[in-house]
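Please, structure for the following, as tokens.
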Amino acid sequence: MKKTKKILKNLFIILLSIPVVVYILVNIFAGAGRKMDEPIQIGNIEIPKERTLYFNNNSALKQKILDGWTSKTPQDWKPDEKVNLKNSRIVISCLLEGKRVEEMNRYLMNQKAVGHPGSPWLLYPLGDYDFTAMAFTALLYLFGESPNLLYPETRNHLLKNILTIDGSKFRKNVGYMFLEDSENHILMTEGSRYLKNQWLKKHGNDNPKFDNEINGVSEKLKHFLEEIETYGFYEFNSAPYLGYTYCALLNLYEFASGDIRNLSGKLLDRLNWQYALSSFKFKHFPPNRRRFGKNFKTNIDSDYHTVMLKVWASLFDNSLSIDMSRGQHHALWATFTSYKPADKVIKWILNKPKPYFVKMGHGYNSCPEIISGDKDYLLSAGGANQGIRSLIVAKPIILFLNDSASEMKETFHMFGPGDNFVEWNNTGVYKDFACTAGKINIPEGKEAITSSANWQIFYINEGVYLATYSKKELGLMAIVHSNSAKNVLEKIIKKNSDENQLNYCFHHPNGNKIDYDLQSPKNRWVITSVNDVILDRDFSKWAFFERTSY
């Protein structure tokens, strides 16, 4: 009997301790909250702000996105599942187009909040409601004063039963946990709180808990936006989370005022300038943080940053042939918000005006973006993983050309050693040059114009060629401007006659002597020196934008 009691007692203790153990382990090993070190300097490249370009109100692409959503039917919400993200997009699009108005109002009257904001976990299973709240906050501001579209009784129901995030309880942590929540969750949750409070105060509710200045929400949200401005986006290039961050910032830019609106605009400008520098003809494949795993999506022309810029570009020039194969749920925000990228951003996205080499730092425990571009091509470094807790997804070094490629396999690209990105340091990019400890993947159908035993020369455009050197543990790519492929091959062989030196040094026909360490630690730039000048390789200390001129 005593033995049985002891067993039951021990079992009870074990069962009681499981949530505590889980709680501790999650806080130690999980989460995607910001880890701050030193502020990141802005660097020697000014973020463009000038806006003189004219944007049309409509485009074929914008209309296609709206038509796609208005043709769908929203589903009723269930209490035991995350609200389908499509539902809000259908309602917004229908009201934007003035279609099925009665149906959409009737649908909303039948829905109620089915969860809580923030990341879900074992002790907080009904999280993620901020995804829905963020979208319906936009709906409130778009149509809340248009009773012919959003009926007054529907608007009141929306405020009472759907937009449930309000008041003064500004939160950055995951529910029932001291771990900071991810960037996109904080912005969606607290942006929605701020905007609902603002709406209520503006429309006559004088309860101080809805006054953002009195309840502290304005100050706290401003501080968080300033934190991102100072330390950079933690979830940089994140798929899919940057898309939700983007929409949350667009909400604040469109519907907030004062410092909150201004800070949101500054962050959007930074994101878009970063994209303009690191993309080529809407091809974009940078390293990213989160969705950490052994695999990554391989499409290069439809990440959740690209889809926004595609919409804005179409509004600038409707004659552009732009495909939208995915990401319409994020792209919808670009169809109805007044924000537009700066002039220089649009121009650099559509046509690179000059050759450039840029390093972009992302701060502590992160990895950089390194880009060498021109009007005919762009070399993009793939970064380096900093350990499991860093959540960095390293990508192949990739060469974008002016062609129809939409998948990684259709490009020249270089993995690191093996096929696991955790092992890669793919930061070996300099001006018109790239190197890695792995072979080059040559796209199907690409034939060399001329070659030697180990070098192959490919045509890029008139006067521009690609030279490749590929072995199992060494891949080199060099962009060379010349009048013929034959001259390129001859110059490269002459300048690099000792092939053993290619393991650590390359003499570029453009005159640069580039030294590199293919076994560099994953927190150091692979390029070690140029023309015997030692480089700053600690990319955790790099500025946001650092230009090296040709």
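Confidence is low (pLDDT under 50) at residues 20-29. The longest strand covers residues 464-471.
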